[in-house]
Specification:
The complex is a heterodimer of chains A (297) and B (242). With 297 residues, chain A is α+β, with helices and mostly antiparallel strands. Chain A has helices spanning 2-18, 20-55, 71-83, 95-106, 132-142, 155-197, 199-207, 212-257, 264-296; strands at residues 60-65, 87-93, 124-129, 148-153. Chain A contains 9 helices and 4 strands, in the order ααβαβαβαβαααα. Chain A is elongated and about 100 Å long. Chain A starts with a helix and ends with a helix. Helices cover 34% and strands 24% of the residues of chain B. The chains are: A alpha+beta (297), B alpha/beta (242). The A-B interface holds A 3-4, 7, 200-201, 203-212, 214 and B 48, 70, 74-80, 82, 88, 90, 101-102, 104-107, 109-110, 149, 153.
């Protein structure tokens, strides 16, 4: 068993040695395919995470007061809100508290807020509703109350994000299928070239009573090596690009959108597993396609 | 050893073989003769299971191969040694490696290969050229390597397709002597040839094909008994000593 595997490995390396150029080109092409796929993957994972994070806040509706409201009116509105259907809890956020929160979120850039003549932020209520449906109904009714300026309600954002996330998902899938087909064709052609170089040897092997798997073995391994090598290189490249991206944009995104990007280390392990499986699959399918015709001769 | 019963094979409108029946016994040396396109190649390809018969049945080494599955074909071919007119040696392998390759294909152990290959090379009288490459050898020497490769796995049957076709008359006779030596040791030999002088000189059974039909079969006239001296001497012979 091991000697057979050893024989196949030895043969596949010797084949790769004889067709270095072609194998190198295949690795390059498939690495490029996987790189594109990898970038789609990181985009998808992050948007999905963002959508899910925001979805967790579906039950909070922020109700902003008019700036010229009297304290009494604001208090009155608070009572009215509390009495409305589907409302679980109400918390008052004064304009001062809102400014402090903003300063905290802006971090190093908070000094920009120091020179304001007056606090532009209004008083508001954080209204916790019982469920998603209640949030929608509450949002519709609360804007009709006099003294309420505006509301921030995440449902629309959640819907939009879900749409973006779905779009990226579908686009990734279509791209993936397309790129996988191209990759299989590239591997199949490379292996075919190797098979053609050894056509005479294969016909002799068949006369000698070699089994199909004995003949196929080295070619399939050749395909698998192309796939594995490409997946390792592509994973490394995606990791480097993504890490740089997190480094440059991560802080800003966290500040503006209050979400953090998925850490590169976590992503790379998953990516490596996906790419390696994909690479092996592409290698096996590509090489089996290319040698099938020669075995049937 | 090889039995054809009413075997017919057509290629579209062309006849390959028409109701051919042949019975080749264990230890026979048979010449298969006939003009080009007569059906000789079809006959061999059917034995090797490269093509399927339209009707009739074929058995090799006691096994009916008519309905053999694709998976079982390697096992059949391991029982058959093939010698070709164009030798079909692997150019980038040495003489030793070409013969060892036949054993590697069947997963023989390194130890077995190390013992067996020099023995067979010695048998075909090419041991001194074991490290040479095919292009460094004469045609006759290349054919000896081809024969060594064909017998190294101890086949039951040796099929030689025009083995002397590319050789001068003297070398051709040397190769014939070698094939006879192999036959004497018990391997059944089926040789396709156009060389009338060789057929005449060898006094072996002749099966002639024309237009896909067996037109002459001198079965029993020159059989195993007449060529195998061990058969009458009473000496114990291992039939697959190769």
């Amino acid at each position: 068993m091991f000697s057979r595997l050893g024989y196949s490995i030895k043969q596949s390396f010797s084949q790769m040695g004889r067709n270095k150029g072609m194998y190198f080109t295949s690795v390059l092409a498939i690495t490029a395919m996987m790189l594109i796929l990898g970038l789609f993957f990181v985009a998808f994972v992050n948007v999905d995470l963002f959508a899910k994070t925001i979805q967790q806040n579906y039950n909070v509706v922020q109700v902003y007061m008019e700036n010229d409201n009297t304290d009494k009116l604001t208090e009155e509105i608070g009572k009215q809100i509390k009495a409305m259907d589907g409302v679980d809890n109400v918390e008052m956020v004064t304009s001062e508290e809102a400014l402090q929160t903003l300063k905290k979120r802006w971090g190093d850039n908070a000094y920009l807020l120091d020179n304001l003549q007056e606090n532009p932020l209004p008083d508001s209520y954080s209204v916790y509703v019982t469920d998603e449906a209640a949030a929608a109904a509450f949002a519709k009714n609360v804007v009709t109350i006099k003294g309420v300026n505006d509301i921030t309600y995440y449902q629309e954002t959640i819907d939009k994000l879900a749409k973006i996330s779905r779009f990226i998902e579908v686009a990734s899938l279509v791209t993936m299928i397309f790129l996988i087909i191209i990759s299989i064709v590239i591997v199949a052609n490379t292996i075919k070239l190797t098979v053609m170089n050894r056509e005479k040897e294969i016909s002799i092997m068949k006369y000698l009573g070699a089994t199909d798997w004995f003949i196929r073995g080295p070619f399939i391994l050749g395909g698998v090596f192309i796939g594995l090598f490409s997946s390792a290189v592509a994973s490394g490249l995606v990791y480097l690009i993504y890490e740089k991206l997190v480094d440059i944009l991560g802080g800003d995104i966290a500040r503006i959108l209050s979400v953090t990007l998925v850490p590169a280390n976590y992503l790379i392990i998953n990516l490596l597993i996906i790419f390696a499986s994909l690479g092996v699959g592409i290698g096996v399918v590509g090489s089996i396609i290319s040698i099938r015709r020669f075995l049937q001769k | 050893m090889i039995v054809f019963k009413n075997v017919t094979k057509n290629y579209g409108g062309n006849t390959g073989l028409n109701r051919a029946s042949v019975h080749i016994n264990k230890g026979d040396f048979v010449f298969l003769v006939g003009p080009s396109g007569a059906g000789k190649t079809t006959f061999i390809r059917l034995i090797l299971k490269e093509i399927e018969p339209d009707s009739g049945s074929i058995s090799v080494a006691g096994k009916d191969i008519t309905n053999l599955s694709r998976r079982e074909i390697p096992e059949l071919r391991q029982k058959i040694g093939m010698v070709f007119q164009d030798f079909r040696l692997i150019e980038k392998k040495t003489v030793y490696e070409n013969v060892a390759f036949a054993m590697e294909v069947l997963h023989r152990s390194k130890k077995e290969i190390r013992e067996r290959v020099p023995y067979v090379l010695d048998l075909v009288d090419i041991a001194d050229k074991a490290d040479r490459y095919p292009h460094e050898l004469s045609a006759g020497e290349q054919q000896r390597v081809g024969i060594a490769r064909a017998i190294v796995n101890r086949p039951r049957v040796l099929i030689a397709d025009e083995p002397t076709g590319n050789l001068d008359p003297v070398t051709a006779m040397e190769i014939m002597a070698l094939l006879e030596k192999i036959n004497v040791r018990g391997t059944t030999i089926l040789m396709v040839t156009h060389a009338k002088d060789i057929v005449d000189q060898m006094h072996k059974r002749v099966v002639a094909i024309e237009h896909g039909q067996i037109v002459r079969d001198e079965e029993g006239k020159y059989g195993f008994e007449t060529v195998n001296p061990y058969y009458f001497s009473g000496e114990e012979v291992d039939p697959y000593v190769f």
